Amino acid sequence: MKIKDLPDEPPKYMEGIARYMWRRIVPMLKENSFANEMDKTLVEALCYNYRALRDSAKSIDEHGTQFETFDYFTDDNGNIVNKELKAIKKNPAVDSLDKATKNIRAISSELGLTPQSRADLLKLSDPDDDDEDSPFGGDDDDEF
C-alpha cells in the first residue's frame, strides 16, 4: 500500500488564515520532509494554532495585554455619576498567544520545520554516519 502525499488543497471546512497557512506550508513539507497524508492532522493543528496566534495577537494589538475594570455608580435616574477602578486584568489573549506559540513550536518540530528537527532528520538519513564522532569510538566491537 502506497502512502499518499499531503493534499495540496486544504480541507473544505478550513477557512481564513488557517487555509492560507495550509497552502503555504504543504508545498514546503512536500519538498523538504518526510510528511505525508498520515500527517494531515498535525498539519491541520499547525494551521489552526497559527490562526489562534494571529487572532490573539490582533486582540492584544486592539486591547493591550491588560485592561481595567470599573465599578459604576448611578443616580436614581440611572445616569453614571462616578466610576472607580476595580481591577486591572490580563487580556485572555495573552495566554492564548502563549499556548498557540508553544503548540506551533512542538508541531513544527514534529514535522521537521525547525532548524534542529531538520538537522536531526538529516542525521537519520545519512548512511555514512558510523558514529566516528562518538566519544565511545567507532563500531569496533571485535576488540572485545
Please give a structural write-up.
The protein has about 140 residues and is α+β, with helices and mostly antiparallel strands. It has one domain (about 15-120). Helices cover about 50% and strands about 15% of the residues. The protein contains four helices and two strands. It has helices at about 15-30, 40-65, 90-110, 115-125; strands spanning about 65-75, 80-90. The mean pLDDT is about 85.
Features:
4 helices, two-stranded antiparallel ribbon, alpha+beta, 144 residues, 14% strand
Q: In a few lines, what is going on in this structure?
A:
The protein is α+β, with helices and mostly antiparallel strands and about 140 residues long. About 50% of the residues lie in helices and about 15% in strands. The chain has one domain.
* Straight-line N-to-C gap: 43 Å
**Would you report the number of β strands?**
2
Helix content: 40-55%
Q: C-alpha Rg, in Å?
A: 25 Å
Total domain units: 1
Strand content: 5-15%
- Average predicted local confidence, pLDDT: 86
Summarize the helices and strands and which ones pair or pack.
Elements: H1 16-32, H2 40-63, E1 66-74, E2 80-90, H3 92-110, H4 115-124
Antiparallel strand pairs: 1-2
Helix pairs in contact: 1-2, 2-3
